[in-house]
Amino acid sequence: MTQVGNTSEAGQPGKSGASVGADRWRVLPGWAVFVASGVAFWVVGYLPWIVEGMHVEVSSAWPRFDTLKGPVVGLPFGEYAFQALLVGGVIGGAAALAVSRLASPGVRFPRAIASTGAVIALVAALGQTLVTVRPALVDTDEARLLIGALILTSLGSGLLGVVVGAGVARAKGWPWLLGGAMVASLLGPWLVDVIARNPADDPQWLMRIARWHPWVGGIALGVVLAVFGYRPAARLVGWLVALAIAWVLPSALTAMSYVTYYGKQGTLSRDRILEVADAGRDVFVQSLQPSNHHIGPLVLAVVIGIAGATSKLRGATDLPA
Questions:
Q1: Alpha-carbon dihedral sign for residues 164, 114, 228, 83
Q2: Does pLDDT of 310 surpass 60?
Q3: Which residues are 21's β-sheet partners?
Q4: What pLDDT is attached to residue 4?
Q5: Which residues, including other chains, have CB under 8 Å from residue 148's CB and lie 6 or more apart?
Q6: Cβ–Cβ under 8 Å, residues 56 and 65
Q7: Structural domain harbouring 105
Q8: Are 167 and 180 part of one and the same domain?
Q9: Are residues 29 and 139 in the same domain?
Q10: CA 106 to chain centre
Q11: What is the mean pLDDT of the chain?
Q12: Residue 219 backbone phi and psi in degrees, to 5
């Protein structure tokens, strides 16, 4: 009996032209997904560190190293490296798991393979950094606390990035929305770190580009909202959650930067830790105020999201039965 009906222009039953076009990019065998995801995690996530030269930061925990002549390490390490580790881990995780979308249809569990590649790349970079830094570590409580915090931040940020990337790689539903909102929120700070390494010496045109980084995040968030859609209406709750992430995460980064700077001043003690924690909380709460936020990029995200989701609905309606 002859099959009639859902046959695409490409001649494949049950597949639309868009699906066939997407399948053309799915060519990587499993081993290539593993390798490419590891490379993507480190190169994309820590591109700002690579561009900077990868020399270990000056720190009181390893005072014998000079920032210009110090050894090359795989991860940013130092009192001011916590934000770079967080941003790099999340962006790198998203890049690594995006590679799983290129896996050949015959590859089983491509996201698991990509996640493994990303984790191994993280462990390798962290191991190389520790092997380089540990011999120069001074024997103080402050130095041991710093190295422990850096290790935990590196591992935690990388694992968070893998989880976020897995959601982005699904390209649909709530995992996509939550993961995409996090990536969009961190994309601006990541871009600034890539293109504006030395504000005092960088060309003015480069600094003007860097000032537009909130709008880059707004455009990315708009794409996330458009793919997620607003039908059924309950999905609008997801839009509010995504916008809340985009509102809160930059404030958390601001508080983190303040805590790492303020915490470096003075000796380590219980009272000092509590004082720094209180100051960081105050900065975080203050940063959440509307006067300290860029509202325009969030409005742009909503506009792009509505336009994109509406266009997608119209396209689905116009498809032949």
A1: positive
A2: yes
A3: none
A4: 42
A5: none
A6: yes
A7: 20-171
A8: no
A9: yes
A10: 29
A11: 84
A12: -65, -45
| Residue 122 shares a structural domain with residue 144 | yes
Tell me: do 180 and 218 sit in the same domain. Answer: yes
Only one residue has tokens 């997407």, namely 22
Tokens coding 166: 């897995």
- Cβ density class 51-68: b for 16+ within 10 Å, e for less: ebebbbbbbebbeebeee
**Of 12-16, 134-138, 199-203, which one has max mean pLDDT?**
134-138
Phi, psi of 7 (to 5 degrees): -120, 125
Residue where a domain terminates, one of 126, 151, 171: 171
**Final residue of a structural domain among 108, 142, 171:** 171
pLDDT digits (tens, 9 = 90+) for 24-64: 788 889 999 999 999 999 999 999 999 988 888 888 788 88
What's the rounded Cα separation, in Å, for the pair 278 and 286?
12
Here the tokens at position 147 are: 């190295």
pLDDT in tens, 178-222: 999 999 999 988 998 888 766 666 677 677 777 788 899 999 999
Residue 1 maps to a domain: no
Return the amino acid letter for 132. T
